[in-house]
Each structure stands twice: as C-alpha cells, then as structure tokens.
Specification:
single chain; alpha/beta; two-stranded parallel ribbon; 12% strand; binds zinc ion
C-alpha cells in the first residue's frame, strides 16, 4: 500500500473543510454570521459594492415606491468618492454597512491588514453619514479565523446571505429573475428549503472593479419582483430590523 495515500486523503479532506469554513455562507466555523432573518415574512434585501453613481439613486427611488428598507454594504474607497450618495442612502431609511476599503479577498490577509480595511471603511461611513456601521460583509464571502472576530472587535456583526443570484453575471434579465424565484416560493411556504426564518438576498448596486458599473439588470429584476413580493405579504426590512425586532 502506498503510505502517502491516506495522508493525501486527509490533506484533501482538510482542504475541503477549510474552503467550506472560508466560503460557505452558512458555515459558522470561523465565527458566527447571520444569513437569514427571524421570520418567513421578512425579506432582507442587501446590496454590495456601491455606492454607484450610475445606479444607486434610481434604486433608492424604486425601493421607496414599495416602502422597502434595505442594507447597503458599501466599499470604503467609493464612499470617500461619493459621500453624498451614501448620506442620502442613510437619510432615506436604509442601513449603510461595511464591505471593506478595497474589496480584497480577506482569506489571505493578516489580522492587522484586515483590521485596517475595516477601520478605514468605518471612518469613511462615519464621515458620510455620522453613524458607525454595525454590520459587515466580507468581499466574495471569504472569511478566515480573524475576519468575523475583527469585525466584532470593531462593533460589527457579520452578514452573509441565503440567496445569491449572481446579478454580476452578464446574462439576460429573465435568467436573473428566475434565479430569484426561490424567495417567493419560500414566502408561500412551498419551497424545499426547510429552514425557519426569511431570506437575506445578496444583490449588487455597484461593481468592485470600478465606479459606474452597469447594474441595470439588477434594477429590472427588482422592478419585476418587488410588487410580487409585496402581494405575497413580504415585508422589506434592513438586516438589523430583521434580527432585532420580534418575529412576526
Ligand atoms: Zn463585494
């Protein structure tokens, strides 16, 4: 028998476990995260990678039409460039949250660099809105043993998601609309999903590579779903509201 085989199998298993802990949205191995709301009636819509001068203002108007509160995980360097847009987002009742300064993959970074990415973003949000963010989402969902802990030390809970339809992919809006279908099915109680609680939907109002990313499809998909979700009895809440108010 080749003595290296079992070692290889163990290494493969370890690598699998580490990648599960680092990237699976519901994995809690690297610290506690929130990936659902406390009620099937409450939907937390979240947006990453903004602010985006090409889209965020239109998105705020659309959300207002449906009395929807959402959570915006903003990039710190964009917040420095567009503080007024971030201020408006907060003033219109949404929660502004931390998505790092430069959008790196935190898995590979040392604790001091992670802390710096999060702290500088906090400072940019405080400068724009007057409030320190209480929520954080790691870029690409990647965590390591220090990410959730560092966010907690800075007063932030870490949010992941239950539904991520890949709205950054260049494909027809009909495909994106279909990918978001599980939320309505879950709200009607006829999805295969067995978990109690409501969904946390991860969408993108910006792009991490540059400002002014085209996210028209995300807007169109929401124009389709928001009236249908409202008719299905869903309430659109921030992630804070979704976990801190009693379940209804
Ligand atoms: Zn992102």
């Amino acid at each position: 028998m080749n003595p290296l085989l079992p070692v290889g199998a163990v290494l493969a298993a370890c690598a699998g476990a580490v990648s599960y802990a680092a990237v699976h949205p519901r994995a809690q191995i690297f610290g506690p995260t929130v990936c659902r709301t406390n009620s099937p009636r409450k939907l937390a819509i979240t947006f990453d990678d903004g602010p985006n001068p090409a889209l965020t203002a239109q998105l705020l108007d659309l959300l207002e039409r449906y009395d929807a509160r959402a959570t915006f995980f903003v990039i710190g360097r964009y917040t420095r460039e567009c503080p007024e847009l971030v201020k408006e987002t907060a003033q219109r009742g949404h929660l502004v949250a931390n998505h790092t300064l430069t959008h790196p993959n935190l898995f590979w970074l040392a604790p001091s660099i992670i802390r710096d990415e999060l702290r500088q973003t906090q400072d940019s949000i405080i400068a724009a809105t007057g409030f320190a963010p209480k929520w954080f989402r790691p870029p690409y969902g990647y965590r390591n043993p220090w990410v959730v802990k560092t966010a907690a030390q800075l007063g932030m809970r870490t949010a992941m998601w239950s539904v991520i339809p890949g709205d950054w992919k260049p494909r027809p809006v009909e495909k994106l609309i279909a990918k978001i279908q599980p939320i309505a099915a879950h709200a009607r109680g006829n999805s295969e999903s067995s978990y109690a609680g409501g969904d946390v939907l991860c969408l993108h109002d910006g792009g991490h590579r540059a400002l002014n990313a085209d996210r028209t499809r995300t807007l169109r998909a929401l124009e389709y779903w928001l009236p249908r979700w409202r008719d299905a009895g869903l309430e659109f809440v921030t992630i804070e509201e979704a976990v801190s108010t009693p379940a209804t």
